Amino acid sequence: MKYLLTSLMLSVLLLQASCGPTVNTYRQTYTPAGTNSKIPSWVQQLDPSTKLVHFAEHNSNAVISNFLRTNTTKLKPVYISLALDKAMQRDDLQIIQTILNSTGKDKHLFATATLGKVRSKKMLDYLIAQGGAVNGLDLGNVETGNTIAMMANNGPLMNMGSAYNPESAKLLIEAGADPYRELAPGHTVLKGIESLADAFAKHANLAKQTNNLNQIVRYIKTAEKLTDIERLVINGDIQKLEKQLNPSNISFKNKRGMSLLHHAARSRQLETAKLLISKKPSLLKVKNKAGKTALDLVKASKDNVAKYLSCQQNKYCKSVTSFENTINVSCSDKSSVQKCTAAIKNDIHGVFTSQAIASRVIEMEYNHACKQFNFGRCQSFANRYSDEPYNGMANKKLETFKKKRAEKLFASACGANGDVKKCKALMGKYPGIVDDARFQNAIAFLSQKCRSKETGWIYKGSNCKANWAHGQGESINTEKNLSFKGMFKSGLRVKGIVSYNDQPMYDGALKNGKPNGIGVCFYEGEPEKCEYYSGKRIDAIYKQRIANNKQKVEMDKRLAEMKRLQEKQSQQINQIRSQVNNSQRPQTSQSSGGSSIGQQIGDYAIQKAGEKVMDKLFDRLF
Are residues 111 and 140 in the same domain? Predict the structure, then answer.
């Protein structure tokens, strides 16, 4: 593995040196961290990479999730790493999960690069489970400028960020990070940290970092060192390991209960894991003091090591390749949901089921349960996948079905041929099946002693004749907020008071449900004599009011036109005055008023223009 001190310092400082000024330019305070208030326009104008860093520092997981749905391909890797740093500072595991999941096949690189900033055991375990390697990833020669790969290559102890937190170093070393691992012949991680401490000590503004680095060095030198057999496992030195393994040391466990297979799994040393299992298969069941097997530590990453360890403990898996192929074929577009579900069920540790396959299964189940609609299956689907995008689609289908079913039940129990008791029983069994106003209206309709012949009107009286409203009584029209109190004849209103929102509108005779003849109307709360013909008002007062309203509308239009012409004339007068004042002309004798001849000519032109416009206004208005 290539080792240069310059590269190591770059891997530590590049984010701050190259991105720090950019980040500082947008750092403004507008909301407390984690809120979902409206995002300011200046944030919206940032490029996607800088915006992600800002969101990771200030906003909630919901904001970040929504942003990443459409911006993943536009993000610069170094900014993704910086955003993860911000989330680590907030100790927000949910945001870290969201950002890591957006990195796709490079998740293990970002998880490894982020490990150096851990502040808690919980965060450490999560990042390791996502593919983070406490001793870095052996990626060979890394291209210049590939900062994330370089950080993953160097390992978390060399990439702890500008602060170099001693507590983070302690967590990493306890998890198996080897400070004596060689980055190149003669150059260990410990020597790299010591070199950085010496380099930082030359700069007064890096005093805090220097002190932290020295604390880390002191801790490393006093902490429990890895045994030779542990180091061979972590570094994947198969040849030396095979020679030194014996029945005694193959069962080795450190003070944290970590076996050699635990180390091999965490270090992503697949061939080493194969060798250890071939020598002692029972290592697969060994648990550390936290109760975790080697597979437990890595299965969330779903990488080759996790798949191999799983296959060794799964009776359905004969080999990693064949089992993986079986799942892929069973869950292809041409397969059925039953075959896919059965294949995934055999993946007892869930390490072979990729995100793409999991999404495909959900889609297949949705189509089977909700697209080809079955209420029970669709309801079950919505309950099982409450956090999936398809959940919203399923609930929409269910709501549509429920509404149709509700309408059918409501029409049967509460419709024109319904029954009061059945309608009330339905509402008791299914509260909210329809809105309360509609239910109350239905109850009122079904409770009528006799009925009205007029559509929409509900009779509330008790005087009837041949099942129709007849005599003195009351009725309401809830859809139009109307009410009536007066005389009925064979189901029709014939004379009485019509009110709107409990305010009287008309008192007089009606014909076929419409005002007809001479009566009393109410205008702005005051009564006035009025006359109707088949619902159309025809009296002189009303017609004069209509005419006045039309005249007012016309006058408003004319006044608006007059204002527009005045503004236009004002502009013309100002232009003329400006032209006169700025014109180049010889000075002549002054008049008795002190004005020049040019000024007098200009004033005369302005006066005539004004008179012309006023004549035009007068003609238009009168």
Answer: yes
